[in-house]
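Whiteboard transcription, Tuesday session. T.W. wrote the structure tokens on the left side:
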């Protein structure tokens, strides 16, 4: 029918596997300190360490590598309770992910730090902000938390950003050439999240339009995203 509008083809978001093995971890200046911590275990400066970095910087990947090596269990900070602390430390090693300024049980965390010290257990905590930025009502818990050594992950440099784009494309089985990688790296924010999001959008548009991933398509996608 003349003047009819063609329906927009939908691109379904399918799950994409991402390996958390040591072999698939991208090394660079942004994560050198944190990677050294994981690889130097059990020779740590403290049995409880905090790993801090922006979203997507590799904290969970590094924690998974350490957990595989140490036999650590993994749980989120908000799921920690006084009652489950002994079980969480049963293997002598524990990863506590997503430690944020609020949303955790202060008494449970204080109990965890005390019991880990008593049992000579290792604990690796991860979060976006250092504990020094937290406001903790329980005085003893606050002072203990702020005294923990912190290792930092920083935003990616140019080489890491390009490597991330290549990796995210490979995770999605996307075939891209150097021109696409260079174009994206020079036009997106230099962050882990921006790299992942750019690849996700480019993949979705490639599927929707049934077009190969080219520099021209990348240019259209970024222009439309503004």
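and on the right, the sequence the group agreed on:
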């Amino acid at each position: 029918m003349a003047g009819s509008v063609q329906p927009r083809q939908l691109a379904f978001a399918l799950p994409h596997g991402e390996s958390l093995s040591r072999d698939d971890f991208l090394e660079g200046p942004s994560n050198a300190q944190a990677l050294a911590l994981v690889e130097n275990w059990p020779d740590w400066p403290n049995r409880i360490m905090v790993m801090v970095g922006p979203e997507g910087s590799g904290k969970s990947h590094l924690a998974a590598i350490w957990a595989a090596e140490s036999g650590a269990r993994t749980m989120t900070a908000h799921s920690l309770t006084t009652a489950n602390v002994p079980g969480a430390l049963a293997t002598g090693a524990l990863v506590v992910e997503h430690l944020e300024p609020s949303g955790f049980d202060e008494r449970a965390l204080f109990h965890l730090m005390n019991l880990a010290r008593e049992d000579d257990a290792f604990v690796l905590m991860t979060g976006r902000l250092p504990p020094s930025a937290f406001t903790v009502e329980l005085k003893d818990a606050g002072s203990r938390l702020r005294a923990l050594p912190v290792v930092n992950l920083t935003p990616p440099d140019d080489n890491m950003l390009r490597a991330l784009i290549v990796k995210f494309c490979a995770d999605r089985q996307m075939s891209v050439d150097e021109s696409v990688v260079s174009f994206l790296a020079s036009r997106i924010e230099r962050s882990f999240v921006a790299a992942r999001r750019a690849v996700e959008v480019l993949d979705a548009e490639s599927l929707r339009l049934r077009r190969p991933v080219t520099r021209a398509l990348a240019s259209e996608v970024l222009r439309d995203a503004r």
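Someone added at the bottom: The chain has nine helices and five strands.
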